[in-house]
Amino acid sequence: MSRVNVIFLIAVFLLSIGVILVISKKSITIGILTASIILGVLTIPYMTLFELVFSVFTNAEYLLLASAVAIIPIIGVILNESGLLSEMIENFKFSKKALLIFSPGVLGLLPMPGGALFSAPMVDKTAEELTPVRKASINEWYRHVFHLVYPLATALIIGTELASLNIYVAIAYIFPAFLVAFILGLFFLLRVVPNNTNNASSNFFKFVKPLLVILAAPFLDFILKIAFGLRYLATFIGVSVSLLLLLYLSKPKVNLLPRQIKKAKPWDFFLLILAIFLYQTVFINSGIPDVFKFFNFPPYLFLVVTGFSLGVLTGRLSTPLIISIPIFVAKFGLMTPVAFAILYYATMMGYIISPIHPCLVFTAEYFNVDVRTVMKDLGAVTSISLVIGLIFLYALV
């Protein structure tokens, strides 16, 4: 490959990344689709590009996964608007400290628009003795750390698919770092919260109903993948059963369902999955992977630096994975589970404290505090979690 070709391909690749970073501030889906087309038009013959686009958008497996991911936000909106989530929190009969973890944690598992604003009032009411800044930090931290190990987290699904990894194997490797983040959160953010238990009467059935909906999908997904070797079909069946169970338990009014579906914007999630597969396909066929053979950089340092930096700069969790994984695979070959765990964990730590992360911005607005003040309050737990978590993960190499 000539020097001119190398320079051209690098320039085109950087252009595509720039397009993703700029447009994703408004819409990550449009950003990735636009970057894919630009990358393809500048590096691939038109007929070949058309065939690649057609193959992605007609791939049955990709369509199954996209459909499964699109159902998840619908579940989130119906759960919230049905009142089932509020009932679950009201009937939580454990300590105040546990409730401060549980309420943002459970709500954070569901990709609801403006989800941080649903858990913030619960945190506010539960921890009246804490400062607004500390309440904001708790809401931000525990809304996200569970995404490290939740098998229906959209970014985790996307990342493991791009890395060609079994999601449950990846979770097993991430788990030690998750424990670090969880425990350090207890020490830095919740150590002054008393452990007193809520003595109010509770209804166990009202508490457990939403949990059945939330846990049914990953349970079925895991069983079907292990027992029958299914992939995307297992995820689709799991989330579909969760949705049907939710409809049975909540008994929503039929005339409200169209508005709830519109609010969830499932088409955005559907197109996002296809856009990601398209970008990956175009990247592989663009000739750019061959360029990385000319560069030398330590693999794990690359994962930590790009993951954390892009997490902070983009305020996204999926975008850094979409950019970093193709580069890593092109340079070093298949991504190992521990390499993915390092990238995902570093990205999560950067994402949590990003000043353009919507959840952080919404949380700060709710508690009427400055975003930078919340970032400062989260600085110690984030940086120490990053270092200790990566030490644990690096020990697995």
Number of domains: 1
Distance between the termini: 33 Å
Q: Describe the main β-sheet briefly.
A: none
Q: What is the overall number of helices?
A: 20
User: Strand fraction band?
Assistant: under 5%
Please state the average pLDDT score.
89
> What structural class is derived from the secondary structure elements?
mainly alpha
Write the H/E string, N to C.
HHHHHHHHHHHHHHHHHHHH
The shape is globular
Low-confidence stretches: none
Please report the total strand number as a whole number.
0
Helical content stands at: over 70%
Taking Cα atoms only, what radius of gyration do you get, to the nearest Å?
21 Å
Q: What does this entry show, briefly?
A:
The protein has helices at 3-23, 28-43, 46-57, 60-81, 84-90, 96-108, 116-126, 132-144, 154-162, 167-189, 204-228, 232-250, 257-264, 266-285, 288-291, 299-314, 318-332, 337-352, 358-366, 371-394. With 397 residues, the protein is an all-alpha fold.
Describe this entry's structure for a reader.
The chain is mostly helical and 397 residues long. The chain has one domain. 76% of the residues lie in helices and 0% in strands. Helix 6 packs antiparallel against helix 7, helix 8 packs parallel to helix 20 and helix 10 runs parallel beside helix 18. The longest helix is centred in the middle third of the chain and has 25 residues. The model has no long low-confidence stretch (mean pLDDT 89).
Q: Main attributes?
A:
397 residues, 20 helices, 0% strand, globular, mainly alpha
Task: Please write out the topology.
Layout: H1 3-23, H2 28-43, H3 46-57, H4 60-81, H5 84-90, H6 96-108, H7 116-126, H8 132-144, H9 154-162, H10 167-189, H11 204-228, H12 232-250, H13 257-264, H14 266-285, H15 288-291, H16 299-314, H17 318-332, H18 337-352, H19 358-366, H20 371-394
Helix pairs in contact: 1-2, 2-14, 3-14, 4-12, 4-13, 4-14, 5-11, 6-7, 6-8, 7-8, 7-19, 8-19, 8-20, 9-17, 10-18, 10-20, 11-12, 16-17, 16-18, 17-18, 18-20
